[in-house]
Amino acid sequence: MAGNVVRIGDNVSCGDHAAQGSGDVFANKLGIAHKGKKKTTGHGKFAPTEFLGPYSKTVFVNNQPVVLKGITEIVPHDKKKQHIKSKASTASPNVSIEE
Amino acid sequence: MADIRTVNEVRARMFAGGAFFRAKNVGKEGNNISIVAFEYAPKRAKLIITNHNTKLAENVSGPASVSLLDQFLNWNEGMSIALTDPPTAEYYSISWQIRNGVAEAVKASEDLGIFDFSRLYTKPGKLSVKLSATVPQNASVSIVPRTSAVDLVWIEESILPDGWKRAGGYSISDLRAKMAGNTWVEMSARGYDVNDPGDDDSVFSLFPDTYLSGGNGMPLGPAGYNVDADPEDPQYIVLLNESESLDGSPFEKNQMFKWNSTSKTWELYVPEPEPV
Questions:
Q1: If both were cysteines, with which of A21, B10, B159, B274 could A8 make a disulfide (CB 3.0 to 4.6 Å apart)?
Q2: Are strands A64-65 and A60-61 parallel, antiparallel or unpaired?
Q3: Which residues, in sequence order, are bridge partners of residue B2?
Q4: What is the ipTM of this complex?
């Protein structure tokens, strides 16, 4: 699979946003989101959630696989499975991974 | 460095005097608006709104250039600087008294002596100001609070259709009509705002200077909103999640803002990939 790395502040297709990123590994000056920093902000009435996966199989930041645009999904916002299958939809324009 | 924080836009509100008031606009600035309703003569009363948010054009008048003003003046206070040689200043407060059955305003002044334009002047708890002006000239500079006043109308005691007696008091409906054009505070129809399930009292009750509260919105500055980013180029980002409709019901705004350190403002941030 291939995808661009997601950063703090990047969007999710349902309207959510990556709320966290690495504190010392950056893309375009912003922290890279990974499995250890996977929370989202929530949006509107939809509570914050977190990235579910799949993550990169080969690229790790702070020993954690990174979140990829168009690939990594979020956990649904609630038990009603709101916005299931929503994926990271924006990312670094020039840091991509080929796996 | 930290996670992205979220804010919501909410109006400041107040239930007082048997009526309901709310800030015209959402935001924390609404919490800096206060209202007082006082009687200065029998059956004669005023309602005064004070907007404590500083706005130089309204807080300062006279031929002076202001480089810094931080003020916490009440509605009945002020400072005046006479542009004489040497310039002199006074701080004053105004209160009402009734003498021989007649209401009159009484001005209490505090002589502040010679005003030094080369230094920051501070009156603890009231204001800090740094001005420049040409002296001598036949003029003065005034620093006053931003206020808006409304006269209250007395309703005489009356017998209601059901036989009950309504005590005399000040009219809320008349006050609401006069407040229609106010740019800081409004009195929406009772029950219109989703946070206001009540009705007006039969007459308006007077109350001391009271602040609206509960307002929230975009932060005034970037402090505390830096996110996980290159420490040599800090990034300040905030998510504005919900705002308020006219009737007070929340709606999703879901906009990200990034601090522009040059313009010192929050700018809309859309993290779309840019062309390489």
A1: A21
A2: antiparallel
A3: B227
A4: 0.91
Query: Which residues of chain A lie closer than 8 angstroms to B254, CB-CB?
Result: 15, 43-44
Interface test with B, best of A4, A12, A28 (most B CBs within 10 A): A28
For chain B, residues with pLDDT lower than 50 are 274-276
Question: What's the mean pLDDT in A41-65?
Answer: 94
Closest by Cβ to B230, choosing from A26, A91, A94: A26
Q: At residue B259, what are phi and psi to the nearest 5 degrees? A: -75, 130
Q: What DSSP designation does B58 have?
A: H
Bond preceding residue B86 cis, omega within 30 of 0: yes
HSE-CB at B75 with a 13 A cutoff on CA atoms is: 22
Mean pLDDT of chain A: 91
pLDDT computed for residue B40 by the predictor: 86
Would you call B134 exposed, middle or buried from its count of C-beta atoms within 10 A (0-12, 13-18, 19+)? Answer: exposed
Q: Which amino acid type is present at position B161? A: P
> Average of pLDDT values for A54-69?
94
* Degrees, nearest 5: CA angle A6-A9-A13: 70
Cβ within 8 Å, pair B3-A91: no
